[in-house]
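Subject line: Sequence and fold of a protein, written as structure tokens
Enclosed: The protein record, placed directly beneath this head.
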Amino acid sequence: MPSTMSASRPVPATTPPLLAPGATAGDLLDLIRSGRATTRGELGRVTGLSRTAVSARLASLADAGLVLEGEEESATGGRPASTLVLDHDAGLVLAVAVGRSRSQMSVASLDGTELASASHDQEVGLGPDVLMPVVAEHLATMLAGLGRSGDEVRGVGLSLAGTVDRERGVSVDSPALAGWDGVPLADYLTGVTGAPLVLDNDCNVMAASERDGHLRDHDDVLVLKASTGLGLGIVAGGHLLRGHRGAAGELGHVKVPAAAGLTCRCGDTGCLEAVAGGWALVERLRAAGQEVDHVRDLVAQAVRGDGEARAIVRESGRRVGEALAATVTVLNPRAVVVGGDMAGAFDTFSAGLRDTLFPGTTALAGRDLQVLPATYGERAGLVGCVRLALDSVLSPRAVDALLAGRR
């Protein structure tokens, strides 16, 4: 899996200070991680800090094992500049993407490089008391296989379907995962690591995975997860929008005329998921006598060229496009990125999506709109969970707290 960390061109000498002179060691590490400044001189120019202040902050980062300094050849043939990089071996992060019928786990270094991964297919409807110990066992096995320990883990990124409370680390409303609401998930991992757990919604995590994908080119993107359920990760102006209670993006529970009177798995009626969500499509096929266990089976049939399966997948795309058109009109994104299991039949699903999305939005909102496949495919959840953990434990505030504790 490619690194989840991005790099950009060094900041030119003429660039004005981007940070206040009070920039902390954590701020400097953030600049180094992003590639905005990778030498002492660049750090001084970007922050306005004196050479002495930059050296002092770098020394504290080096003492904590977070920064390495080497040399690179000067483009002008002059004295080489010392290049600063994050020491990716200074720790680990764990990633856990919990789904309705499959959970994925990985171990990554501090630059986002995957070191080990595992996937676990589970029965639908398992509660946290059954599933989370299995997740913990997989994580412990991977760490042992790498010859690493839980003490080296700096953070854990975990995603769930539905709305979550990030402060408390619990699910608060997940129709896909009955019995998970209000359960503290960090407690299940204490036997593996004492590192902090960061929780987020699966669609937001998928959007985070695009930081090193489509978000490099576009600041306004809707990341659609079309799978068992339907949801959106909303990025506007480069910022992820979670909403007042963290419930932004619940596209699957928008009321649509086609679902009038149909019961959704959330308990309400008339939701988009009841006619376009993977769970509803599977129920429909089973009622027609077909042996289909998961939406992935339907997608596989469509990819093999089965006419009925292709028609069902395309119809799902059409229904989603109808509901999504209003959001596109209001937010005017540059791209709609399609991920989740339906993206396995991207051409078929997106054809249906385009059939209704473009006619349903304004000409201006649809003029430059692109429909694109998710960069990391079925691994988007893991990539996003790694990013989630890294952005938390290597944030300026977290790094400064770590250094203060060492002092």
User: Anything to note?
Assistant: Residues 214-374 form a domain with the Nucleotidyltransferase; domain 5 fold (CATH 3.30.420.40). Confidence is low (pLDDT under 50) at residues 1-17. The chain has three domains: 25-86, 92-202+381-406, 214-374. The longest strand covers residues 102-109.
